[in-house]
Amino acid sequence: MGRLHAVGLLLIVTGVFVASNIYTLIPIYSEIAIGVKSSEEQIIWGSSVFTVCYAIGLLLFGPLSEQYGRKKVIVLGLLMSGLSTMLVGLSFNLESLIVFRGVQGFFLGSFAPVAFAYIFELYEKEKQRTLILTLINCGFLVAGILGQIVSTALTLFYGWEIVFFVFAVIYVTLFTFSHKIHIKTAISPAQGFHIFKVLAVPFSSKQLFNSYLITFTLLLSFIAFYDSLGRMLSTDGFSDEALILIRTIGLAGTILAVFTGRIIEKLHLKKTMIIGILLCLGSLVLFIVFREQPVMITFLSIPFVSSIAMLIPSVISYIGSAAKAQRGLATSFYSFSLLMGASLAPVIAAHLSFTFVMTVLLVFFCCNLFLVLKM
Q: What's the whole-model pTM score?
């Protein structure tokens, strides 16, 4: 296997496991609450603090990687992610859980923005670059389900602490491989620290601003759908095993992500995004119509997941093209928008009914269609 192929494969695998930890707490709130002698409502603060610290990391590490190098930030970020993830498993009360979860979120935020900028610098051929970006973003979709499946299964058999010990070992292993395989790229120490430039990126053009608004809704919709569906079906008496099967069937839709590059070549980015949005709108309408038929919803989740799998690589490709010289900064804010939306999704799902959540998502994607048409 060539060096660039190995780098691409490693980035895809790393992306899946880094993003998985955004969702590990969702299905095991009650078990952790018992473990640290707290209430389930208080444990949710662990997710809230994680989200804030993760957002800070997403904005901070992209600019830092321009000064110190993409490889160095990715490698050290994985090492610190492993150590902080182990600390979460060692939490002994509510306060320690919140603090350790916040530290974990901060260091996990070191991967996505740096990896996207790294890919744009490393891969000159557009087709190869688009494929790797597509598979990494597809990995984020897989992580939304994989993270919950792994945490549920490990907690069921071994206890909630083991979830974080296992992920800690995975991150340290990825650190080892990353240190050996990743390639050093050029650094720009003379440019100084760019955190304020990152914050200014969305307002630099209408195209970028619209793209970030769309980006925010993508993983949010994916996670909100599955979280809301799981809550509804759990109330109806569905077992954890049945919910895992339902989530797994929907992942068949991610296959379309592999062909997104070819679709973009034939139809161009804007038309590809319009098709993805229309497919998503159709799925959301059918979810509402068949809301009392779990089997129908399960199979309708395949085109829904396909639409998200098509939109995510399309939007980042559009941002990469529109940003031009600001590409590194633009991808930092892209990952911030994408994964902040994912972090907000459980909050929406926890407070609204399934039908209400689908209606909110329907409104989001009507707005997305309007935004794309205005680009």
A: 0.83
